[in-house]
Amino acid sequence: MPATTLARRAFLGGAVAALAAARAFAQSPAPAGPVDPKLLDDLVAANRILADQGVVDGYGHVSVRHPADPQRYLMSRSIAPELVTAADVMEYDLDSTAVEPRGRTSYLERFIHGEIYRARPDVRAVVHNHSPSVIPFGVSQVPLKPLYHMSAFLGGGVPVFDIKAAAGQPTDMLVRTPALGRRAGADARRASRRAHARTRRGGGRRLAAARGLPQRLHGAERAAAGAGHGPGRARHLSGRGGGAPGRRLGGRHHPRPWELWKKKALAK
């Protein structure tokens, strides 16, 4: 083949590649602006704390709404929570499209986060986990109810999301689309997914993380109490008794354990 033909093909190939790159760049959302390093530190700490406390393991993810643009959120690239650093944090729009991915991969179930932030303007942080202590309550007829004041935020009930029913057909049980993300958890502050996971929304990254731990421990405690069945069934907080403690506690008491959990988690 003549050298001129090879050169022409190489030139055309380079031009096509450049055009594709330009289109991809043009379609990529523009960054919302700089993020306070303290916020990034808290997001990293939330990942590490939840891993250290057994709420997440190699799977699970934590996000926070972008402080400069409520139509964006921040979450790490697809990596085990215990390994997250500030450099891993990526920005997403509410369609869960990554801003400036730079070759980094994203969590498959990121759509849970984007659709919750879209549906709930008051939500500032989301935790998705697979804690074994609470999974049984998504596959049985036993509801997860609060036993003590630290889990009082569960007093309003925990809906169970059945992805097969939502999709209308068998799936791989992963929320891979915005449509499933909307169905998975945009209707409440917490949801249990049948045979898969838990999703927790909160008023801030520290509060969401701080409530993820009592929720995991509460599942184990409730199981130890006989799951509320039999002659010695557990007495749960209910009605005002279930909701009032959670509202009164709010985020006021979380700075104390947060600093302890953070110190332990980041020391590893």
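(ticket continues) Second input and output from the same batch:
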Amino acid sequence: MSEVSIVNVKPQLVLGMRKRGEYPSIGVMIPQMCQFAAQNGIQMIGPPTFICHEMSPEEAKKADKEKEIENARTKYLEEKAAEYDLQPVALGLFGGVYNFNKMGWFFRKSMSAVKPQLEAAGVPETEPGLYDTRDLDAIRGWAKDLAQKVND
């Protein structure tokens, strides 16, 4: 099946779902859609098809970034706390500062691939060799919430 052709079809009713999540959830969504169709007397005329796309490249990047952050939160905060049997009042993941000026030669050389990634992600170089990925407003908000929890 290496040939592609375009076929015009008559307008038809299309049943679909939209869900934000990981790709393995597709396997759950298709049976749910088929069950919905059966329960509502909708006759399906073809096999379920799933086309996955984001609204824009920016939205796709944002979704990837959000999942990446959630994975980091789970791996580096929640799992570590559980590993050491800790029950923290609050956890926060805020980014950090890359100061290439204070790195040793070998570490700076091995981290040189990170610079273009930071720049591509829109992280400004606040001064030569210094990239700050922290969200200071988010840190302040987290600290206020933490103070409230401790004082309650």
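Agent notes: The chain has five helices and three strands. The longest helix spans residues 57-83. Closing as not reproducible unless the customer responds.
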